[in-house]
Structure formats: C-alpha cells, structure tokens
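Working notes for the structural subgroup meeting. M.R. asked for a predicted model of this chain before we commit to crystallization trials. I am recording the input and output together here so anyone reviewing the notebook later can reproduce the run.

Input as submitted:
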Amino acid sequence: MILQVNSSPNLRSVETINLPESNHPLVISLSHHNDQELLTLFQNHLDQGKYFVTIYCRYAQVLHTLISHSVRSPVQADYLFSQTWRHIYYEMRSLDLREEGTGSVAETLQNWLINVAATCINRADLPPVESIHYSLEVAPPPLWCYVGQILDRMDALERLVVLMAQTFRWSETRIAAYLQAEGESISPSEVKSVLGQGYQSLQNNLPTDIRVIYLNQSMALTQPPIGEFVNFSSKNSALVNSEINSRA
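Returned structure, recorded in token form:
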C-alpha cells in the first residue's frame, strides 16, 4: 500500500491524543492478549465492545499520528480519524489475518490497520473545516461506532426524530411541523413519544460494557449527545432529508 500525502509537507507538531478509556479496568484486564486473540474475541463476541475498545486504545495513537501528518487541519484530521475507525470496525468483523490453507499469520493487525488508514487518507473527501462539528474527546470513535450501529438498526421514524432533536436541537413542535409539511401525520405529543422510544432503544441496545467504559453504567441515556456521533458535519441535513424521502 502506497500512502500518498500532500505535496506540501505538513510540518505541524502532532499532539498525543487523550485515551482515558485505556485506564478503565475492563480494558486493562485485556492487556495481556495479543492482537490475534483480541481480534478473535471481538469477532466471537460482537455483542461486547471491550475488545474493540482495547484494540482502539492499542493503535489509536499510531493511526492518529499517521492521519495528522497527511491532513492539513487538526479538525479534519480528527474527523477522518473517526471515519477511519468506523471503517475499521465493520471491516474487522470478517478480517482473517491467517494465510489461507496454512493457518499461519500472513499479516499483522498493525500493518492491516495502517493500510486501512492509508486507504482512507487517499480516498478522503473531507468537508470544509467550518462545517465539521466533531470533538474527539466528546465522541470517541468506539462509542460513536456502537451508537451509529444502533441508529442504523432503529425504526426509520424513531431515527429521524432522534436525529432532528439531537442534531438540530429542534423541539417536538417544530419536528411535528416539519414532518407534517412533508406529509407525515403526527402531533407534537406523538413526536415526544417517538423520541422517548428512540432514546430507550439507544439505552437498551448499547452494549453494557460500552456504557460502563464511556457513560458509567448508572447514567441514564435520556438525553444522549447523538449529534456528536452521527455525521459531524453539514451532511446531517442531507441525512435527514434522505430519511424523509425514504418514507415518502
């Protein structure tokens, strides 16, 4: 894999990213596993998030440094970093590092991750800095991956209402008015009910260990910062419009 970088060198210093989840007991308890073991555990226990979080903690700094040296803006670098880890999350589900027919390891996880990052860098179509509203500290990539997965599986109306409420900060009345204008027969009280169902779906389907690591197990997810996890940019409006059109 040939990593193409900007013709003008990016000489800015790259800060070490903060990884508070690396100090969590659930993550520390897995530190003795090698990469292949963590990969196997991740693939065999997709309902648990701690294995992916541990892999993330192990290689986040390497990939963040690589991406930061290849992108001009720190804001765009964080955005691409999060997008890269979402790609990794889905690709890693079926990843087989063993050489076919031999059982021996053909490629290391680290090399595979670097190659994935290089591909994401080379293919990146980054939005302007001013349209990115993403904070690496507020929305760590593993948390965003699992929240995004739940949103993908959520009932279309629930997902749309949650997106409107959290991405645009719209009230139930405004959401109802918008949906009514698009031909959806719904009242503000019904929007409130649907919104509550959406939040409950997020609460119920987020893996317990992800809640423990990132949200604290006792924290009720009644007002989750979904706007931080979904799209991070002006593409949010296109996503909402796509949801509306799909229901037409």
